Amino acid sequence: MSQNPFELAVDSASSVNTGFFTSPGFLFFLQIMEFVLVFFTIFFVLHSIYLIFKINTIQGRFRVYKDAFTRKTPPSYRGEFVTRWIQVKQRMETMQESEYKLAILEADKVFDDLLKRMMVKGKDMGGRLKQINEDLLPSINKVWQAHKVRNRVAHTPDFHLSHSEAERVIDNFEEALRDLRILD
User: Fold this and answer.
1) Do 83 and 128 belong to one domain?
2) Tally of domains in the chain
């Protein structure tokens, strides 16, 4: 019986291949690779889910922060800050040093509360102001100046302040509130 040369090649190849691919060492290697690939697949799927969750959280915070600086319409909490700002301005009208010192303290508190509402990170007002640059708030340097005066008012009992200096501080805060579209 004569065999076809093709059948001989298939028979000889299958006998060589079946021995290697069915050997216990190769099968053990395949089991280890299967375990490793399943482990990495589970790891990457869970890690992807975690990252998607974190990205959505970060994007939500970033959107609030970005919207506060680029908003065309005023924020929903605008009325609260406008009301508080009116009270600050009323204190300035009294022309008494104690009242306009309180006005500066309240103006600083209004601005700090706004930064907190905008979710600007920081331990205190100074820490939050460090997170903001001139691209986001053009009047940030004026806010820093006003905050420094506020610190002197709060921490130096015998610090005297003229009405014109107090007005300048209040105007600095007011300009920043206008930049953020809280005030018209």
Assistant:
1) yes
2) 2
